[in-house]
Design goal:
alpha/beta; Aspartate Aminotransferase, domain 2; Aspartate Aminotransferase, domain 1; five-stranded mixed β-sheet; binds pyridoxal-5'-phosphate
């Protein structure tokens, strides 16, 4: 089946009693056993649930994995993968990853004995140099948040494998419609399903997708042991959202390219960060590795924070809000919002300045989005 067909059909059929066209929500916390040795595949919803299972089968098929566990947030998915490691293990991550992931690694898992190095992953050599005999994991996020740097997944995964480390990619920013890390040699893929996979800004969720049996067994054990699974209702919402992933991503991308070109030509804008623009330093890599450029972009406004505040106050369609990947366009200020969990030095080191704004382009008509920026800049 082609990708769009898998979005609509895989996993969905769970109702043999009435043959409903969409997956029922099974809110039951527990399931009856036929006898002391037999149940119908589910016994307790923390361990497994038919609605959640439908979503997991669907997402595994979209990424090309063998299994998936759907979690209550993206952070829960990331936390589950970190529990694959032991105290003393060393993990290499990009210096400009999502602020919440940085916080989880730096402030929570460091205390539990894991060691982290944050390197500029744009150059794979920096990963090679950071590898030690204790390195067991490499954390990839591409495009990065919020400056849309691209990481060469295949090159980094080769380095990880040569050093006996597993590679994990956060594929939230592009979704499997535009990028499939397994095709580039990655071992595990995570998502915040809160973003494009659900796509309607009405649920928080996450998932871990695996392609090897030992990883899927361990993740399945951990998600049950730690109690990280998402609720049946949330699973149902994401499953409904994911059916339109392909057409939504096309609409998102169309708008993003038009908005990026408009901003680049605007005299009030100092710099635009969007891999779809030919002058993006990794435009060629993005073209090779991704099926499209996505719909996240950032830009630096001339004039510092007062100018940023003026602009935000005047925008009407773009909503000042964190998160991304929903049908509505959002704009946010990484310094005090999405990346506030990083300290200022780490933000500046990552290239986030007090002029930086991040945009999640929705699926509204691009003319309206450009007109909104035009009137706000005036
Ligand atoms: C790239 C990325 N990964 C993970 C997360 C965490 O996801 P959640 O907010 O669903 O826990 C986010 C949230 O913004 C994100 O942008």
């Amino acid at each position: 089946m082609q990708f769009e067909t898998r979005c609509v059909h895989v996993g969905v059929d769970k109702d043999s009693a009435y043959l409903s066209a969409t997956t029922p929500i099974y809110p039951s916390s527990t399931f009856r056993w036929d006898d002391l040795n037999t149940n119908r595949g589910f016994d307790y919803t923390r361990s497994g649930n038919p609605t959640r299972r439908a979503l997991e089968e669907n997402l595994a098929a979209l990424e090309g994995g063998i299994d998936c566990r759907a979690t209550c947030t993206g952070m829960a998915a990331i936390a589950a993968t970190m529990h694959l490691f032991q105290p003393g293990d060393h993990i290499i991550a990009g210096h400009d990853i999502y602020g919440g992931t940085y916080r989880l690694f730096d402030a929570v898992f460091r205390k539990m004995g894991l060691e982290f190095s944050f390197v500029r992953m744009g150059d794979p050599e920096n990963v090679r140099r950071a590898m030690t005999s204790a390195t067991r994991g490499v954390w990839i996020e591409t495009p990065s948040n919020p400056l849309l740097n691209i990481v060469d997944i295949a090159a980094i995964c080769r380095i990880a494998r040569a050093g006996n480390a597993i590679s994990i990619t956060d594929n939230t920013f592009l979704s499997p419609y535009l990028q499939r890390p397994f095709d580039h040699g990655c071992d595990i893929v995570v998502h915040s399903t809160t973003k494009y996979l659900n796509g309607h800004s009405d649920v928080v969720g996450g998932c871990v997708i695996t392609k090897q049996k030992d990883h899927s067994d361990k993740i399945s054990y951990l998600v049950n042991a730690l109690g990280l699974g998402c609720s049946p209702f949330d699973a149902w919402l994401v499953l409904r959202g994911v059916k339109t992933l392909g057409p939504r991503m096309e609409a998102h991308q169309r708008g993003a390219m038009i908005v990026a070109k408009f901003l680049q030509a605007n005299p009030h804008v100092q710099r635009v960060y969007f891999p779809g623009l030919p002058d993006h330093p990794q435009h060629e890599l993005a073209k090779r590795q991704q099926k499209g450029f996505g719909a996240m972009l950032s830009f630096d406004v001339r004039g510092g924070r007062p100018r940023v505040e003026q602009l935000l106050a005047k925008l009407k369609i773009f909503q000042l809000a964190e998160s991304l990947g929903g049908v509505e366009s959002l704009i946010e200020y990484p310094d005090t919002m999405s990346h506030a969990s990083m300290n200022e030095a780490a933000r500046r080191e990552a290239g986030i300045s007090e002029n930086t704004l991040r945009v999640s382009v929705g699926i509204e008509h691009p003319d309206d989005l450009v007109a909104d920026f035009e009137q706000a800049f005036e």
